[in-house]
Design brief:
The complex is a heterotrimer. Chain A is an alpha/beta fold. Chain A has helices spanning 12-24, 38-45, 61-70, 88-97, 109-121; strands spanning 4-8, 28-32, 49-53, 79-83, 101-104. Chain C has 5 domains: 2-420, Up-down Bundle (Sodium/glucose cotransporter), CATH 1.20.1730; 421-531, no CATH class; 539-631; 652-733, Orthogonal Bundle (Helix Hairpins), CATH 1.10.287.130; 742-893, Heat Shock Protein 90 (2-Layer Sandwich). Chain C has 35 helices and 10 strands. The chains are: A alpha/beta, B mainly alpha, C mainly alpha.
Chain lengths: 122, 88, 895
């Protein structure tokens, strides 16, 4: 059925890995690799799900999420946040701003897949 | 201190302790009064009190004071050791 | 004769036994095994020095003469003990919190640390106690003579006197040995206390033994003894009410005021909780002591020939009935009573004499400053020892001069009345903040004058006050007759003296207190004493900035001993958060020090010493405080608040600084850990994702497989590099790196660096431009580390230069004794905000990073700092430009 996922991430290898995993599962994956215009991309592509890294060049994932939640047409969009800073306060921050889910790198592929399926079904 | 004063009701335990200290305070006064009783005895007359009776009276008072004092101080030491300051 | 010799032998053995007990107790206390020394039982028993030979022998005589009146002497103290919550508890608390060393110290300390007052109290205490010591010596010699009379008549009076001398010398020796072994800060003497506790048991046992013998051995049991009592000459209650009440009051007052009682009750007190047991156990002791007195008196009156001295019935009754063993036990009991009294009295008085008379004089004579020279500890100990000797000698002389006759017998109550004059000043000082020094002087003076005039002097008979004066008053003024003040005749002389001396004493004390105005120090001390439960320690305002910690240290060492003083100072320095041994002379510390010193030399002397060292002799604390008093209405409060708020402000400042520092460190650590975590997790994420893909996906092409494997490989290398960098940085930052200094050509170093940085970059498209001529420089430094910096800078240019045809220009220049090596590329450079952070760890330049953890420039900066140079970003050069600066002397131009 090809639901769409927008992956906002700056590490090329991680982009490649996640793209591979999701497209093999039948998702339509588009990617974006900096923070500046990420919000615009989200609005223009209107994906079913956004996977958002926290540490992005230009603008942090938190700020992007805040803006996504701030726009009426994207406020209910499922957002999965990824971070490599494994601290509790990062998770708390993400939950406070309104991330649907929060995952710490490194993750297992199966887990990512499962969470993505779950978020879109909801 | 001001904190204490402002509290009108005390817990049962500290209330009991204060009354215990009141008892300890009043004990010497009772003792002094009892030992002042011989002042009332007639002296140097024919019907004066026999020395043996006087001895018995004075030593009984003594014993009562010692025993009461011992009991009170035992009860006092069983209670908490702080709070000794809360009076005076 | 055999028995007499045996008596001497038993006496000697007993004395040796006491020495051993005291010695063992001292040793146990020193070795810290002294738990049992500090039991409430020992404390209670030590109070029994109240029962002197006057009790042991005299009570029976007293009963034989005056019936039950003797009981007043024990009822008074019993009431004081039963009422411990009122007065004793407070005295003990004050004694402990103020490190009081004697009753004179307490009074002087309460009234503004007036040494004059302390001297007065000391003199009065000596005057009041000396006859009492004489009485003890007399009792020992007379009891000895009772034995010798029984066995061999004809011992001369000289023998008695030599006995008294021997006893006095022995007691002085004992007191010196165990009373002045060391200068205890807390002024406690375990050996002495233990010995008198043992003596307490001995005398109680001896008196009870005689009593039991009399009641069940000589009389026919309890009912028989009661019959005998009622039929004897003291068989009915014939008591003057005024004497009964007056003597109970007197003995209660004396119990609180006797220097020796104050010594055992307050000074030697180890634990306030001991009072709880003593409050009932000591009345019990007194009760048992008084229990058999009347039976012994009555049986003695029956048994002994008319005219025999009832004072020694306790000895003569067993002797007359042939019970030599019991008599000997009784003798030991009386001996115990006498010795323990003399020992403690000498100890208490010597402390007072030494602290308040000898030491101040010595300090004055030696120029006041303890800083001058010599070990004050030895001086204090010596003065204590001399004082003990003097006190005992005084007692002996009094005994000799008074002729040892019956004049001494009445001295007990006279002495009691004398020391009872301390009562208004003591109680007033402890319960009334308005009591002042003038009041204390007035009260004590009036009280003692009346006591001397109406009781002491008349007791010497016509030799002191003529019969005419007694009958008609001085200069014929009738209302000033010594025993009939204001013309009120017919009162019992003793009650008369008690009534007038105490009441006029109190009146004078009260009136003078009301009229005077206390000095600030007095008011502070008054507040501390009266409200001792509220604040067991409150600053008294030393002007600390004037003090020199080192001088204080020198002084404290002389008095407390080096170890004690050093640990006190060190503890305080630690408490103030300072390194080293010398704390800041804060008011709080000076006060603490003063208390510690007061434990050894008394409050007034300690105060004088500190004020001399701390304030200089010119400005006394009182002066300072008086100035403060004029500006502030409530002296106590303002001074306390001021000191406290100053203290608080300083503490708060220190805390804030410490907290800021900790927060900063913690934040830095947090950020660093977070970054390390990020840098480690990112490659791991790729590694894990691709290894799972390789594991789980079967349908991968060989090309995909190869590509994924090489990603894993690259990321693993990136991880390794990161760890290497981290370790390298850590070593550099901790300064653990050892530099490998070599000499070489700058050109060579650059060649090496270029080769290393550009290898593996395959299509090396970075164009490097150099000026070979300028590079002809000889360098003496760690060339490998310098090369590492160059490699990093070249690598950065290679990675980040975004020009179409990337170029790197390396130029060398000399300026102000430095060699400047610039690395400039032709890319778009680094933005202004990034320039500020690129040298920080894990900083991210705006552009997407190709590889590396962001530690390279941080490492470069550390290396250059170690090499004595620097590396910085050079703005405005077109592209990104870094400048490495090396000091010239390390870089010598070749040729």
């Amino acid at each position: 059925m090809g639901k769409s996922v927008l992956l906002i991430e700056d590490e090329p290898n991680i982009i490649e890995a996640i793209s591979f995993i999701l497209s093999r599962d039948g998702w339509a994956v588009s990617t974006h690799s900096n923070g500046h215009d990420a919000v615009g991309v989200v609005q223009s592509t209107q994906p079913d799900l956004v996977i958002l890294d926290v540490m992005l060049p230009g603008k942090s994932g938190y700020d992007i999420l805040r803006e996504i939640r701030g726009h009426s047409d994207t406020s209910g969009l499922p957002v999965l946040m990824l971070t490599a800073k494994g601290q509790v306060k990062d998770r708390e921050m993400a939950e406070r701003i309104g991330a649907s889910r929060f995952m710490t790198k490194p993750f297992s592929n199966a887990e990512v897949l499962e969470v993505v399926r779950e978020l879109v079904t909801e | 201190m001001s904190e204490r004063r402002s509290r009108v009701f005390l817990e049962r335990q500290s209330y009991r302790r204060r009354r215990l200290i009141d008892t300890i305070r009043v004990l010497p006064i009772i003792g002094a009064l009892l030992w002042a009783v011989p002042l009332l005895w007639p002296s140097g007359e024919a019907n004066s009190v026999a020395t043996s009776d006087a001895i018995i009276f004075i030593f009984v008072v003594w014993t009562i004071l010692v025993v009461t004092g011992a009991i009170l101080s035992r009860v006092l030491s069983r209670g908490s050791d702080e709070n000794d300051e809360l009076d005076t | 004769m055999a028995t007499l010799n045996m008596l001497v032998a038993v006496c000697l053995v007993y004395v040796i036994f006491l020495f051993l007990i005291a010695f063992a107790a001292e040793r146990a206390a020193i070795q810290g095994r002294g738990g049992w020394l500090r039991s409430p039982v020992v404390y209670t028993l030590s109070l029994s020095i109240y029962c002197t030979a006057w009790t042991f022998y005299g009570a029976v005589g007293y009963a034989a003469r005056s019936g039950l009146e003797y009981l007043t002497i024990y009822i008074g103290p019993s009431l004081v003990m039963i009422g411990w919550w009122w007065v004793l508890r407070k005295l003990v608390r004050i004694g402990r919190s103020q490190r009081v060393t004697s009753i004179a110290d307490l009074i002087s300390s309460r009234y503004g640390k007036s040494n004059l007052l302390a001297v007065g109290v000391t003199v009065l205490a000596v005057v009041g106690t000396t006859p009492y010591i004489a009485l003890q010596l007399q009792s020992v010699t007379v009891s000895f003579s009772v034995f010798s009379d029984a066995y061999e008549a004809g011992l001369t009076r000289d023998n008695h006197e030599s006995n008294a001398l021997l006893v006095a010398a022995g007691l002085a020796l004992f007191t010196i040995v165990f009373g002045t072994r060391n200068l205890d800060v807390n002024e406690r003497h375990h050996g002495v206390v233990m010995a008198i506790a043992v003596e307490a048991v001995v005398k109680l046992f001896a008196l009870t033994a005689v009593g039991v013998f009399v009641v069940w051995g000589l009389a026919g049991g309890v009912s028989d003894i009661f019959t005998r009592i009622d039929t004897s000459e003291i068989g009915s209650w014939e008591m003057r009410g005024d004497r009964w009440a007056g003597l109970i009051f007197l003995s209660a007052a004396a119990f609180l005021c006797l220097p020796r009682m104050f010594q055992v009750m307050v000074v030697e007190n180890e634990n306030e909780g001991h009072l709880r047991m003593a409050s009932w156990a000591f009345p019990l002791y007194l009760m048992v002591m008084s229990l058999f007195v009347v039976p012994i008196a009555v049986v003695g009156l029956d048994l002994m020939p008319a005219g025999s001295n009832p004072d020694f019935f306790v000895l003569t009754v067993p002797l007359a009935t042939g019970n030599d063993g019991l008599a000997m036990l009784s003798f030991i009991g009386g001996f115990s009573s006498a010795t323990s009294m003399v020992i403690v009295a000498a100890l208490a008085l010597s402390t007072m004499v030494s602290n308040h008379i000898v030491m101040p004089i010595w300090l004055n004579v030696t120029g006041g400053g303890a800083v001058v020279s010599g070990d004050v500890r030895n001086v204090v100990l010596l003065s204590r020892r001399i004082s003990i000797g003097a006190v005992v000698t005084l007692g002996y002389l009094y005994y000799r001069l008074s002729g040892g006759g019956t004049a001494l017998a009445s001295i007990g109550l006279i002495s009691f009345t004398g020391v009872a004059q301390f009562l208004p000043v003591l109680i007033g000082g402890v319960f009334w903040r308005g009591a002042t020094r003038q009041g204390a002087f007035a009260g004590l003076t009036v009280g003692f004058l009346i006591w001397a005039y109406s009781l002491l002097l008349p007791s010497f008979g016509a030799s002191m006050l003529s019969a005419d004066l007694m009958a008609n008053g001085p200069f014929g003024i009738g209302w000033l007759r010594p025993q009939a003040f204001f013309g009120i005749e017919g009162m019992d002389p003793l009650v008369h003296a008690i009534l007038w001396s105490i009441s006029l004493n109190t009146l004078a004390f009260y009136a003078a207190s009301l009229m005077g105005f206390p000095s600030p120090l007095e008011r502070l001390q008054g507040a501390q004493f009266v409200n001792v439960y509220e604040h067991s320690s409150t600053p008294r305002g030393w002007s600390g900035n004037l003090a020199q910690s080192e001088d204080l240290m020198i002084m404290a060492q002389r008095i407390l001993g080096a170890r004690e003083a050093q640990s006190l100072f060190e503890r305080e320095a630690r408490g103030q958060g300072m390194a080293g041994v010398l704390p800041e002379p804060s008011p709080e510390f000076l006060q603490q020090l003063e208390r510690a010193l007061a434990g050894s030399v008394g409050a007034a002397t300690a105060h004088a010493m500190i004020s001399q060292t701390a304030g200089g002799a010119s400005v006394s604390v009182e002066d300072l405080m008086a100035v403060a008093d004029e500006t502030a209405q409530m002296m106590e409060h303002s001074s306390q608040l001021e000191t406290k708020s100053e203290e608080l402000a300083r503490t708060a400042r220190q805390l804030r600084q410490a907290n800021d520092k900790l927060t900063q460190i913690s934040e830095q650590k947090d950020a660093f850990l977070s970054q390390v975590s990020h840098e480690l997790r990112t490659p791991m994420t790729s590694i894990r994702a691709f290894s799972e893909i390789l594991r789980d996906s079967e349908m991968l092409t060989a090309a995909e497989r190869g590509r994924y494997c090489s990603i894993i490989h690259d990321e693993a290398i990136r991880l390794t590099r990161l760890l290497d960098d981290l370790l390298d940085l850590s070593v550099l930052e901790n300064g653990q790196v050892s530099l490998n200094t070599q000499t070489g050509q700058l050109a060579d170093v650059l060649d090496q660096a270029l080769a290393a940085a550009l290898t593996g970059s395959g299509d090396a498209k970075l164009q490097v431009m150099r000026s070979r001529e300028a590079e002809k420089l000889s360098l003496t430094t760690d060339l490998d580390r310098l090369s590492q910096v160059f490699i990093n800078l070249i690598g950065n240019a290679q990675k980040y230069c975004d020009a179409e045809h990337p170029e790197l220009k390396i130029s060398v220049a000399h300026r102000e004794g430095n060699v400047l090596i610039d690395f400039t590329d032709n890319g778009s450079g680094i933005s202004k905000e990034d320039q500020a952070v690129i040298f920080e760890k894990f900083s991210r330049a705006g552009v997407q990073r190709v590889s590396g953890a962001g530690l390279g420039l941080a490492i470069c900066r550390e290396i250059m700092t170690r090499l004595g140079g620097s590396v910085s970003y050079l703005p405005g050069q077109g592209g990104a430009a870094f400048r490495v600066v090396m000091p010239e002397e390390l870089a010598v131009a070749a040729q």
